[in-house]
């Protein structure tokens, strides 16, 4: 008995290490990897270099090179060319946590951009910041309209003024139209996950009870609202041809969720394996999503940690929904999403350590741990994360957000049940058919997979889910 | 034609449910069998709606832009039209209301449908499914079971097939006696024989036991069924009704087997609700699919409130219980409900799908439906409202069976030769009355209607198009394909069947991974054929030429050109 308690307390202590450098990635030294290999896939500078459309009007600013302007931002950010660093510093002072508006994505079709930031600190006195207004004016540059997607309800945004926060008022930002969409965050999201996992773990429920618990967990409602708002952003950018600024309050959770989902829907480059991992790296890791605080204990935590929140898991679920609706459009497979869902909570690699770039630098993560993304892309491993049916399309892939189109992600939430095994066999079968085909087609015809994509992937005319498991 | 007041209306708008702003302008034509909408656009796209498939036509109040008309179909398609003149709309409504509710069998589409087959082909088509051959395929041991002529000319039971399989040991007197003791004469007969365990599934209606009645003939019949399985010492009687319902039936002189009167039986109640509960449940489910812009909670709450998935689980549970008894315990089972043509058909056929991989093939499912449903007197015309009649007789019994198969396909993606489209196609045809297979309520009625001479059979038509209904993941040597399926029936395994009930959501026919895989497969085959013809070309013998013609349709044109040259 005593031994058992000892073991329990040891495990408890070891599973809740305080110091990052004591964590396993710092001791993980597999023989086939060296510490001197390349670290990471993408960065602000790389993205800027690849995106020719940006060169004219945008620049890379290193105003945050010592992380003093915004502790949670990376050392380099993309901002309008005409706004100098001094203005950025002023704008940062006017935004919560210093997270001033920076570019997240530039749409390859029309040059419209998705910006993200935290809330402006207008407070009860309706303070203004001229530099912040100029910065946003420079974003839309002469065009008459931009959209601010505020991820809080109007009422919540109003209330935020009482605690020093606020929103961009019409009078100060005259060319920006504000749209409010309520998103749950933090504790509510965490409790939702706990309820869902609890519902999934009891196979004795009747159908009624199961459906009621599923509904009650609200998890699918959160998936629904994340995808809907991402769809709204896409509509602004792709259909109406306007730039968009996305923010909630802190700009580290739902903001990243919505802006990265919008990119996945819009940008064919982010639907490749490399592109998707690069997107996660830029828009989540470098953008300062506090992984260490958010993904410490997942659903089974006894200590109700204040900062725990499955924002990233929600992202993966939303990506899975998109992937299920467009089974041919993404280069990666469900296996990748499952792997990421695991790695983000417990990993041999340093990729998801710490809360932002500043902390990672201080801990020497790059120097002392291995990079997950690099390892996922190594030739012998990569294949298991590829989608055998991948067929690139240039079009935006608008997911249907009708409730009957969204499903529980059984691959993740029921992965420990018998249910998963047959699915695995089915996936193998798909691979074997495709491989057989490729062999027969020979090397010169490998890319000649039959063209089965619809020509128009307009909203909701999405692919059907005849085989939901592929 | 006498029911059509306005055969043609111009400038009608047809709406897309999802994008109400988007609509097609075109002309509406009413024929005696179809309503046809022809778009004014370049493509002149045509939408044909079979009148016998319409379940309900409704006119909404006229608004400034015209009179809206909503056509709901039995396969859950919904068409929304806007007719400019109110008078036209009233006329169309009156015509369609009459045309979609035929009063006599003769009015049904199958009697006028003519796919240009000559008499010989038509007869051959009707012989496509051979139930005699099916009982042989099951491997019934001739020393234990045989076909009896007791129901010749349907004189014993008018809703049973004329040929019945019973234990060889029972005398004609026992057969007649047992039939007399069963509701509507539906005595216990063989439905499926499981060769691997020698256990069988038999079916019947409820016994007329009341509170105390008994029949030694019926008791002998069950004893004989039990004895036909030499290895087991008892048999199950599965009453698929909730126990309370079964008990209530006793007051009407019916009920269930008294375990004291029958030796060596174990009675098991499963609890599938009756047709009225199911009808209401499905209506609620359809309403959920019809919701405009529902939230996630609305949808899930509606799904729960409909109770539909709970009922699907009950049917599947019944099948699982029977399959387990037969395959694992080697115990024979007699299945019945009240009349033995709804829940009994469901339970027997689901169990058969689980037990026998043949029923998981395209041809096998046809055979199963022909056997357990068509021949054993499932009341198709009543349940699927082929004729204007008692709405209380209507119930989605077959829908539930098809959905059980679909739910199984979700769990065993490689185990079924057919795909979802096949199930949906079957569903539509059960309701649409285009073919004669599902007309009438029993074999006798079909014979009296002379359906085989006056209508066509669906099965060969589906079989010819089987490429469209094939699941690319199916391989007959796959581990999932073999043996008995043991599905999970945990609540979270049951999904909303979007392909069936969410059809209003889909606005265009779109691509699925299955289609993609099929295309990949086809191309592979073509390449292989191409390769083989290339290899054979140098020989240039007549045989070689003959060969590539047979294999590759595509090359025909080329060769003929060469011949001309």
Would you kindly provide a written description of the structure presented here, covering whatever features stand out?
Chain A is 42% helix and 7% strand. Chain A has 470 residues and is α/β, with parallel strands linked by helices. The relative contact order of chain A is 0.11. Residues 505-511 and 536-565 of chain B have low confidence and may be disordered. The longest helix of chain B has 24 residues, at 513-536. The N and C termini of chain B lie far apart (54 Å). Chain B is α+β, with helices and mostly antiparallel strands. Chain B has helices at residues 86-99, 119-126, 131-137, 172-180, 216-227, 243-250, 275-290, 296-306, 308-327, 343-355, 362-375, 380-383, 397-411, 420-432, 443-448, 451-454, 458-464, 498-501, 513-536, 542-551, 555-564; strands spanning 8-15, 23-30, 34-39, 46-50, 54-59, 67-73, 78-83, 145-148, 164-167, 189-194, 199-204, 235-239, 265-269, 333-336. Chains A and B meet through α7, α8 and α19 of A and α8, α9, α18 and α19 of B.
Report a brief summary of the structure.
With 470 residues, chain A is of the alpha/beta class. Chain A is built from 19 helices and seven strands.
Offer a few descriptive terms:
heterodimer, A: 470 residues, alpha/beta, two-stranded antiparallel ribbon, 42% helix, disordered C terminus, B: five-stranded mixed β-sheet, globular
- Series of H and E elements of chain A: HHEEHEEHEHEHHHEHHHHHHHHHHH
Low-confidence stretches of chain A: 444-470
Whole-number mean pLDDT of chain A: 85
Largest sheet of chain B: 7 strands, antiparallel
- Choose one word for the global shape of chain B: globular
């Amino acid at each position: 008995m005593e031994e058992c308690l000892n073991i329990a307390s040891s495990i408890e202590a070891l599973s809740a290490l305080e110091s990052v450098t004591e964590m396993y990635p710092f001791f993980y030294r597999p023989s086939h990897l060296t510490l001197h290999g390349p670290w990471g896939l993408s960065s602000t500078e790389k993205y800027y270099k690849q995106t020719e459309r940006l060169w004219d009007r945008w620049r890379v600013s290193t105003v945050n090179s010592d992380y003093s302007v915004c502790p949670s931002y990376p050392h380099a950010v993309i901002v309008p060319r005409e706004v100098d660093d001094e203005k950025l510093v002023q704008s940062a002072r006017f935004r919560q946590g210093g997270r001033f508006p920076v570019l997240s994505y530039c749409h390859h079709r029309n040059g419209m951009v998705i910006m993200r930031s935290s809330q402006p600190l207008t407070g009860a006195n309706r303070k203004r910041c001229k530099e912040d207004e100029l910065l946003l004016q420079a974003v839309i540059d002469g065009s008459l309209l931009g959209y601010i997607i505020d991820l809080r309800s109007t009422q919540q945004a109003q209330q935020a003024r009482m605690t020093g926060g606020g929103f961009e008022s019409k009078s100060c930002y005259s060319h920006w139209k504000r749209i409010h969409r309520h998103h749950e965050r933090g504790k509510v999201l965490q409790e939702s996950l706990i309820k869902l996992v609890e519902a999934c773990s009891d196979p004795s429920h009747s159908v009624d009870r199961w459906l009621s618990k599923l509904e009650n967990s609200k998890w699918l409602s959160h998936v629904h609202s994340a995808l809907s708002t991402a769809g709204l952003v896409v509509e602004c950018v792709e259909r109406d041809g306007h730039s968009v600024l996305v923010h909630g309050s802190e700009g580290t959770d739902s903001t990243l969720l919505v802006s990265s989902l919008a990119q996945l829907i819009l940008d064919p480059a982010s639907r490749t394996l490399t592109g998707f991992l690069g997107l996660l790296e830029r828009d989540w890791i470098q953008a300062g999503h506090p992984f260490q605080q958010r993904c410490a204990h997942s659903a089974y935590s006894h200590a109700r940690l204040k900062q725990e929140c499955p924002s990233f898991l929600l992202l993966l679920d939303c990506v899975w929904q998109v992937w299920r609706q467009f089974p041919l459009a993404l280069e990666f497979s469900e296996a990748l999403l499952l792997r990421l869902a695991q790695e983000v909570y417990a990993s041999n690699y340093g990729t998801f350590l710490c809360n932002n770039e500043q902390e990672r630098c201080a801990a020497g993560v790059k120097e002392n741990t291995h990079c997950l993304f690099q390892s996922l892309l190594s030739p012998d491993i990569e294949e298991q994360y590829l989608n055998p049916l991948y067929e690139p399309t240039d079009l935006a892939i608008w997911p249907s957000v009708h409730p009957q189109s969204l499903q529980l992600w059984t691959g993740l939430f029921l992965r420990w049940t018998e249910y998963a095994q047959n699915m695995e066999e089915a996936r193998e079968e798909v691979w074997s058919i495709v491989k057989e085909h490729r062999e027969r087609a020979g090397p010169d015809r490998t890319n000649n997979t039959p063209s089965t994509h619809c020509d128009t992937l307009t909203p909701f005319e999405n692919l059907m889910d005849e085989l939901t498991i592929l | 034609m006498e029911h059509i007041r306005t055969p043609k209306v111009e400038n009608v708008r047809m709406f897309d449910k999802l994008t109400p702003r988007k609509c097609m302008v075109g002309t509406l034509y009413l024929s005696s069998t179809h309503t046809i909408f022809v778009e004014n656009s370049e493509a002149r796209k045509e939408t044909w709606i079979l009148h016998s498939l319409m379940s309900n036509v409704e006119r909404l109040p006229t608004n400034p832009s015209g009179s809206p008309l909503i056509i709901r179909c039995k396969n859950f398609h919904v068409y929304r039209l806007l007719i400019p003149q109110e008078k036209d709309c009233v006329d169309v409504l009156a015509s369609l209301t009459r045309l979609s509710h035929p009063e006599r069998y003769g009015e049904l589409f199958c009697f006028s449908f003519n796919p240009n087959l000559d008499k010989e082909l038509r007869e051959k088509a009707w012989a496509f499914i051979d139930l005699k051959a099916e009982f042989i395929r099951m491997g019934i041991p001739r020393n234990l079971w045989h076909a009896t002529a007791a129901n010749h000319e349907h004189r014993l039971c008018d809703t049973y097939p004329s040929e019945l399989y019973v234990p060889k040991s029972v005398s004609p007197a026992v057969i007649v006696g047992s039939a007399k003791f069963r509701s509507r004469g539906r005595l216990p007969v063989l439905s499926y024989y499981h060769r691997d365990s020698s256990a069988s599934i038999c079916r019947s209606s409820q016994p007329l036991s009341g509170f105390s009645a008994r029949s030694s003939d019926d008791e002998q019949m069950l004893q004989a069924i039990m004895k036909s399985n030499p290895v087991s010492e008892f048999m199950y009687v599965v009453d698929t009704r909730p126990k309370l319902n079964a008990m209530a039936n006793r007051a009407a002189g019916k009920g269930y087997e008294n375990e004291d009167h029958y030796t060596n039986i174990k009675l098991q109640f499963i609890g599938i609700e009756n047709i009225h509960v199911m009808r209401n449940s499905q209506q609620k489910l359809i309403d959920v699919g019809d919701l405009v812009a529902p939230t996630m909670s609305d949808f899930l709450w509606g799904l729960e409130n409909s109770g539909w998935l709970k009922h699907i689980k009950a049917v599947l549970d019944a099948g699982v219980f029977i399959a387990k008894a037969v395959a694992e315990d080697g115990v024979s089972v007699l299945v019945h409900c009240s009349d033995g043509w709804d829940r009994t058909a469901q339970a027997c056929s689901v169990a058969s799908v689980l037990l026998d991989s043949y029923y998981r093939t395209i041809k096998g499912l046809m055979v199963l439906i022909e056997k357990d449903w068509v021949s054993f007197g499932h009341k198709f015309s009543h349940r699927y409202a082929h004729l204007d009649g008692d709405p209380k007789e209507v119930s989605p019994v077959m829908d539930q069976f098809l959905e059980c198969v679909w739910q199984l396909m979700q769990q065993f993606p490689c185990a079924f030769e057919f795909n979802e489209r096949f199930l949906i196609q079957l569903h539509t045809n059960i309701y649409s009355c285009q073919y004669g297979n599902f007309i009438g309520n029993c074999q006798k009625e079909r014979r009296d209607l002379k359906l085989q001479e006056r209508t066509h059979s669906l099965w060969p038509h589906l079989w010819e198009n089987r490429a469209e209904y094939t699941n690319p993941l199916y391989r007959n040597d796959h581990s999932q394909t073999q043996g008995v399926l043991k599905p999970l029936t945990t609540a979270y395994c049951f999904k909303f069947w979007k392909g069936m009930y969410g059809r209003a959501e889909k606005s265009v026919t779109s691509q699925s991974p299955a289609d993609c895989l099929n295309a990949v497969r086809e191309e592979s085959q073509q390449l292989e054929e191409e390769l083989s013809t290339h290899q054979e070309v140098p020989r240039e013998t007549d045989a070689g030429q003959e060969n590539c013609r047979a294999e590759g349709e595509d090359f025909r044109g080329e060769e003929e050109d060469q011949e001309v040259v």
